[in-house]
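Reopening this one. Same input as before:
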Amino acid sequence: MRKDFQHISRSQFVLTYGPGAIIETKNGPRIIPIMQYGLDAKYFSKDVFESFEIAETRLSRIIQQSSDKCHRIVALPTNAGLKIPSNSRIYSTYVFPAWKVCYGRKANHRPLLYNGPKCPLCKTDEESSATRFVSACSEGHLDEVNWQYAVHGKNKCNPPYYYWKANGSSLSDIIVECPQCNSKKTMKEIYSLQFFCTGRNPEKERPASKHSPYYTSPNRPKNCEHKMKIIQRQSTSLRVSETMTLLTIPEFDNTISRILQKNEVSMALDMILISADLEQLGISDFIDTLSKLLQRRISDEVIMILTNEIKRCGVSEFLTLYRRLNAEDQTFMDLMYEEFESLLSAGGTVTENFSMSHSKTIIPTLPHVPELQVSAVNKIRTVTVQLGYTRLVNLNENQDPGIVYSGEFLPPNEIWHPGYEGFGEGIFITFKNGKLPDISSKSAFSKWKMYKNSGYEQKSNWSDVTFEPGFVWLHTLSHAIILSLSAYTGYSAASLRERVYISRDGSNGGILIYNTSPGDDSGMGGLAGTVDSFSDIINGAIDNLLICSNDPLCIDVDKSSESINGSACYSCLLISETSCEHRNLWLDRHIVIGN
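Same output, byte for byte:
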């Protein structure tokens, strides 16, 4: 029997889909299971994962902090990489939700809601389509709607199906009725209910049979204290990826740095550092010891490169570079400061995966933004890893959503996270005088200082820096520039990503706007080429901040103890959440343009 399939890219798997996501197919909705059950069994192995590993030690070290396991990054295996035909399916999905609505036109019965592969009356699924409703809780659990409780409450009536009356498009026009006791509820009434959480994660269940399409045997441990809420299966808040991205800076964009990030080399060097007395170990002894540990684990060519590097720079300098790549006490913010400092000094630098032109001075015609230094980043490499995902549903005030982690355990004691390498281009924006503008006289500045921890609080790798007025100023300008770039160049705003930097002492900052996702707009010099016309782009960005189509409603909103943003809406500042590293939080037009 022919297997149905559709292609998704590695970046889609990490940024949008991945385990726990509901994807629409021509045969109805499917949920993507964890890699252990999704990947064909012969591809879920350490050997395959190592052949698709993305060696980025600095990122792996950040992920594995407070963990006793080794964390590694794997690019989703592809048909081309596995050397199999492009029409072969390598990742399976599960049917979810399983409840369907059959309209019964051919069998001449009333539309009904049922659970199973076929309609219980007409014995086929030809006129059936999956219900668009599921239930989820803020701790990441997901399940079918409990229709028995939704219609009957505590009544024990449990019919084999329900009548589905759709008299219009609104929720109040849809009536779900029991054929046995005639209890009925509108979807508007059902939508307002809160259900006990079942603790289910269908993406972590095994398939109930070996035959496609795959259904699972539901596992409902009921160990969650949160309530489930009905939500449409296509809602973007049903699954939001938790990702981390690192830019490859020029200092580490060389052959020796890439070799030092290989797992086999790291293990050998760690063994030497633990067991050997480096003061008594000369260059020859160090090379001999390392070569013996690496024999038959990596190629002779790689061992020769390591040998030549040690002879060139000496043991001490060689190990200094290794320790920098494998520093265990570095935080994510340390890496961001390192990136920013590297970009500030990278004008004219060209390496294998990085190229940046000298900066050009841009003087905006409007006074809200000072003179800028804008550089074309002609070549850039990023590594993005998916840590997990959250379900932003039914959140209480100030409640942190629970993260469902995406890592897969493989012996010996290793956790593999899905990730992808991105190659593209960008523009880097900073200030000519090397200082953030003085915004302390603006009323928005004092409000952000006063209420910086207000609104929805969430855990962030960016620590408390995002609450600072200087960061809010940069982040707001970054969004305005992305929207202006989209209008000026024709690029989709969703195809661009941002990174907002601030210096260690908070006095300086910068913005990197880039594109590294294959298949998106840009990637052929179009984004880097906008430096020559950036005066028009920055002036357009300021105009976007000065005038919003939702004014005066938008401009009347100030930062307060109840809000995470100030003046910001989808007409002026909010962009795709895959573009914004901070989920459209910490934005305020007032902090740039004043009142």
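So the earlier flakiness isn't reproducible anymore. For the record, The chain is about 25% helix and 20% strand.
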